Amino acid sequence: MVEELRCYLRPDPPALSLPPRLFTSPRLYASERARIFGRSWMMVAHRDQLASPGDYVALEIAGEPVAITRGTDGLLHGMSPICRHRMMPLVASGAGQTKDFTCPYHLWRYHLDGTLLAATHMRGNPDFDPAACRLPAFAVEEWRGFVFVNLQADAAPLAGHLAGVDGDLANYRLDDMVQVSTWTEEWRCNWKVAVENSYENYHAIGFHPNTVKPLMTGGIDMEVHTDSPLITRLLTRTGEPMEPSVLPLTEEEKQVLYSFRMFPCSSLATFGESVAWITLIPLSIDRTEVRGGTLMPAAALEGADVEAIRKQTEQFTGVINTEDRLGLEAVQRTLGSRFIERGHLSPKEPGVLAFYRNLALALAEDEAEPEGR
Ligand code: FES
Ligand SMILES: [Fe+2]
């Protein structure tokens, strides 16, 4: 199956969609868990969700429970929130505030950095060393306010890959942006069904005729810039320049909708003066968690009714997400058909081929190569 992906590595890849069984094969999903989700950077929150010591975000990445905390040391910590005693989950998926993680089973307690705080009734076991007992750590990085996690604790740093994005968005002043809304939802489809859809505007004409399509005043074409196997920049030219109220955008920048994809499943896009992030993380082979948020310049919110803006952005993203979800869940339901096969792609979707190439790079590289490059 992985062999079938190699064609996308050619300089002239065939304009064909993925072989359908790549969306349903349990073997391929196992390989994706190990070779992609076990060692890739994923954007999972904005720092506004982890502002104070004790704030945490908990989620699952391809079946692996993950917690990210703001520790009492003020730093972000990533960890596997599974009790080291007898495998009880320490926290449910979601977000909140806590002093520590207390296991509901026999009440072992862990600090926000994953080290053990106390274990009940364990003194009589000489083999148990509390100092050596801690939750396995994951790598965490914050870039321009966005919080990324990588299950590989010694992963190579992410920030160096983002120079192109930083350059394109310098005038958006991401550091001065505030997250006005954030949301999480579940789509009943394979993660690749959701991600390939996010690499093209072509579907705006079908799924989003009244929401996204009107924003594409210059048409649905995308310029694709591949910075690295991790970062793809997708630029859409607008017909009418936007008129920013607070951002110092150049004439050129006023006519571009910026959109970035970070392999495997995270993205960032500008809509006028606001910026939206979205990440599509597999929960299982046929379910995907969609996490995202909308940011606005702090200066644009001064004196404004922030609650009304929050409701408005939530409503707008909610409508677009529902349009995508209903369409992609319908695609997912066809995947068991005996009559489906690879389809021809349009010149309007070069981004999709960029995604397939990155997928091939991640899955088809030499199996013998050591992990942890
Ligand atoms: S499983 Fe957590 S304390 Fe026993
Ligand atoms: Fe869409």
Mind explaining what this structure looks like?
The chain has 373 residues and is an alpha+beta fold. It has helices spanning 2-5, 26-37, 163-168, 191-198, 204-207, 298-301, 306-334, 350-364; strands at residues 42-46, 55-61, 64-70, 76-79, 94-97, 101-102, 109-110, 116-118, 137-143, 146-150, 177-187, 223-226, 231-237, 256-262, 266-271, 274-284, 287-297. A seven-stranded antiparallel beta sheet has the order 1-10-9-4-3-2-5, with no helix packed on it. A hairpin with a 6-residue loop joins β6 (101-102) and β7 (109-110). The longest helix has 29 residues, at 306-334. Bound molecules: FE2/S2 (inorganic) cluster (FES) and fe (ii) ion.
Order of helices and strands: HHEEEEEEEEEEHEHHEEEEEEHHH
Q: How far from one another are the termini? A: 24 Å
- Give the total of beta strands: 17
CATH class of the largest domain: Alpha Beta
- Please mark out the parts with pLDDT under 50 across 5 or more consecutive residues, or reply none: 368-373
CATH topology annotation of the largest domain: Naphthalene 1,2-dioxygenase Alpha Subunit, Chain A, domain 1
Tally of separate helices? 8
Structural class: alpha+beta
CATH architecture descriptor of the largest domain: Alpha-Beta Complex
Query: Over all CA atoms, what is the radius of gyration?
Result: 22 Å
Quaternary structure type: single chain
Biggest β-sheet: strands ordered side by side in the sheet: 1-10-9-4-3-2-5
Bound small molecules, which ones? FE2/S2 (inorganic) cluster, fe (ii) ion
Tally of structural domains:
2
How much helix is in the residues? 10-25%
> Which percent band covers the strand fraction?
25-35%
Largest sheet: 7 strands, antiparallel
In one word, what is the shape? globular
Mean pLDDT: 95
CATH superfamily of the largest domain: Naphthalene 1,2-dioxygenase Alpha Subunit, Chain A, domain 1
Keywords: 2Fe-2S, Iron, Iron-sulfur, Metal-binding, Oxidoreductase
GO molecular function: 2 iron, 2 sulfur cluster binding; iron ion binding; monooxygenase activity; oxidoreductase activity, acting on paired donors, with incorporation or reduction of molecular oxygen
Protein name: Diguanylate cyclase
Domain Rieske: 41-149
